[in-house]
């Protein structure tokens, strides 16, 4: 049996000090990949109602077309654990740097491809097939991105600042979603519905190319973390990281999965599905829904570094517990207000829903990094985090849309969030505090 706290106990091994001037480059390296990843995923979610018309039979039931689009959105998440396994293995064997550059390249290439795909009107059902293929490449790349970025930043960060610095990786996730929301909001404000359906939807996907180029340039200039470098120099790199993960680190892996369940469900409900809900249930225009999501993301981005710094002061466990309990208490009232038909209260309700998610994201990666050793850290974070993404992340918009249609209740998505919150609450209650501990190599 593994010792659950083995990854975080003080150690006599030398710990290399982190030069002050390295923080900015390290933060940029973690930030940029998350921006690209969540910009790419966010675009698809925000344009779901347009893509339903463009890539699926327009003469069919609109709800069925939307569900097909959301199922394609979820398809990418089914392959994220595979990406986590492949890139996690390579990252723990060969180093973080090369894998971080590779994941950004694959992600932006697949997203750019979506922007140039022929539509249903041009080639029929083959268009949907090509869309699914591009989304699957995105899923594999995204699965490898998160574990590497989190490991890289955590291994550079001083213990007393790890929560704050690791929160910047997830800040990039919200920043990417915010950028996607802002781009889509701008386009829907200046283009007609017909123009968006004809060609406007392509523009955000094409924008991923220059974003990805910047990301690759930044990451190719990096050096591997000193922790991994020292491990490699001593010849102690794991030969089979994934096998070691399952034999010696099952406890941390299960905890990472449980703590990630609400994080993914709430992210895709608060920042992606809410836009669909405001339009289809609340009766608001697409422009109003996109502006509401944009404001929510701005507030959540602003709050995230504060939540990360807070976890450095009071601990990871209190932040996890507080955000999870807040979700349980606020979810049903928030959806009642969003369903009211009054725009300003609905916007404020979405902002309230986004704040617990901001807290969860801020504290997640520092917590996960502290659960694993350097030998398996990339693999452990990537697999545990991505298993949760497959279970409730990409499927969340589909589940919520299906629940509303099936039950006839506009509050059904709140029930979905409550179930996921109870799972994360059980994991958070059992979480041992790891704030300011020294990361162990093995």
Can you describe this structure?
By secondary structure, the protein is mostly helical. It has a single domain, classed as Growth Hormone, Chain: A (Up-down Bundle), CATH 1.20.1250.20. It has 20 helices and no strands. α17 packs antiparallel against α18.
Main structural class? mainly alpha
Q: DSSP helix count? A: 20
Q: Nearest-angstrom radius of gyration?
A: 21 Å
On the 0-100 scale, what is the average pLDDT?
Answer: 87
Q: Level of helix content?
A: over 70%
Number of E-state strands = 0
Low-confidence stretches are: 1-21
What is the count of distinct domains? 1
* CATH fold-level name: Growth Hormone, Chain: A
Order of helices and strands: HHHHHHHHHHHHHHHHHHHH
Distance from first to last alpha carbon: 15 Å
Q: What is the overall silhouette?
A: globular
- Which assembly state applies to the chains in this document? single chain
Q: CATH homologous superfamily, by name?
A: MFS general substrate transporter like domains
The CATH class, by name, is Mainly Alpha
Topology:
Layout: H1 23-46, H2 48-55, H3 62-78, H4 80-94, H5 96-116, H6 120-123, H7 126-156, H8 162-190, H9 193-200, H10 202-206, H11 208-220, H12 226-233, H13 241-248, H14 250-280, H15 286-314, H16 316-338, H17 343-371, H18 377-393, H19 396-407, H20 412-429
């Amino acid at each position: 049996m593994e010792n659950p706290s083995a990854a975080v106990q003080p150690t006599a091994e030398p710990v290399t000090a982190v030069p002050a001037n390295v923080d900015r480059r390290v933060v940029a390296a973690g930030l940029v990949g998350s921006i690209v990843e969540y910009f790419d995923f966010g675009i698809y979610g925000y344009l779901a109602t347009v893509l339903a018309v463009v890539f699926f039979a327009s003469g069919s039931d609109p709800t069925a077309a939307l569900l097909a689009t959301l199922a394609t959105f979820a398809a990418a998440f089914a392959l994220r654990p595979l990406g986590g396994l492949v890139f996690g293995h390579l990252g723990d064997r060969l180093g973080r740097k090369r894998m971080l550059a590779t994941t950004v390249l694959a992600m932006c290439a697949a997203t750019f491809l979506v922007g140039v795909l022929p539509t249903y009107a041009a080639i029929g059902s083959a268009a949907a097939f090509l869309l699914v293929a591009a989304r699957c490449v995105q899923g594999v790349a995204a699965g490898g991105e998160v574990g590497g970025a989190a490991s890289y930043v955590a291994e550079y960060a001083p213990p007393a600042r790890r929560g704050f610095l690791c929160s910047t990786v997830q800040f990039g996730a919200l920043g990417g979603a915010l950028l996607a929301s802002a781009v889509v909001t701008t386009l829907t404000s200046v283009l007609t519905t017909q123009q968006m359906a004809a060609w406007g939807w392509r523009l955000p996907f094409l924008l991923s190319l220059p974003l990805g180029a910047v990301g690759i340039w930044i990451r190719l200039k990096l050096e591997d973390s000193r922790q991994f470098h020292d491990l490699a120099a001593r010849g102690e790199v794991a030969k089979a990281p994934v096998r070691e993960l399952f034999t010696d680190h099952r406890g941390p892996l299960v905890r990472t999965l449980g703590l990630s369940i609400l994080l993914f469900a709430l992210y895709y409900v608060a920042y992606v599905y809410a836009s669909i809900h405001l339009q289809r249930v609340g009766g608001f225009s697409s422009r109003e829904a996109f502006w509401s999501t944009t404001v929510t993301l701005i507030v959540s981005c602003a709050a995230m570094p504060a939540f990360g710094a807070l976890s450095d002061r009071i601990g990871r466990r209190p932040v996890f517990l507080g955000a999870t309990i807040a979700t349980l208490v606020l979810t049903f009232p928030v959806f009642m207000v969003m369903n009211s038909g009054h725009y300003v209260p609905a916007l404020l309700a979405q902002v309230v829903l986004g704040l617990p998610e901001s807290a969860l994201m801020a504290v997640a990666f520092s917590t996960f990094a502290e659960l694993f050793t350097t030998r398996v850290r990339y693999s452990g974070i990537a697999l545990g985090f991505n298993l949760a993404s497959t279970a409730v992340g990409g499927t969340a918009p589909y589940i919520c849309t299906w629940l509303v249609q099936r039950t006839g209740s506009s509050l059904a998505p709140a029930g979905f969030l409550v179930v996921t919150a109870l799972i994360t609450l059980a994991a958070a209650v059992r979480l041992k505090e790891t704030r300011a501990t020294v990361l162990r190599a093995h």
